[in-house]
Each structure stands twice: as C-alpha cells, then as structure tokens.
Specification:
Blueprint: H1 2-27, H2 35-40, H3 45-71
Length: 72
C-alpha cells in the first residue's frame, strides 16, 4: 500500500512539473505579427539615454546652484 501511494505521488508530481513546463514553453513562443507594431512604439535606447543624461545634467546644475547659494 505504501508503494502504491508513493507511485501515485510521483505521478502527480510529474504531472504538475510537465504542466508547468508546457506553460513555460508556450510563453517562449515568438509573438504574433501584430505585436511587432507594438514593439515599434517603444522609445529608442539612444533617446532614453539622452533623456537620462539631460536629467543628470539638470540635477548637477541645480546642486551647483544650491551649493553656491549656501556659501553666499
């Protein structure tokens, strides 16, 4: 009886693992053709980099202004 329950438990665990593997495999499929249009709407990495650099420069300028105002 103990062997039968052990075998049943192994079959259940195998079914769960295979089910999860199937879900992961379907998630890895390439997106449909319509999704490529959505990817084109994403901003370009260079534009994002320029925006971040502009924000950093602005923060540095404000920090310099605050430091000079504090010493005056």
């Amino acid at each position: 009886m103990r062997a039968a329950f052990s075998l049943l438990a192994l079959v259940i665990v195998a079914a769960v693992v295979l089910s999860l593997a199937k879900k992961q495999a379907t998630a890895l499929k390439p997106p449909p053709a319509g999704a490529s249009a959505a990817a084109a709407a994403l901003p370009q990495p260079q534009a994002v980099g320029q925006q971040v650099q502009g924000s950093i420069d602005e923060a540095a300028r404000r920090a310099a202004e605050a430091a000079s105002a504090a010493t005056n």
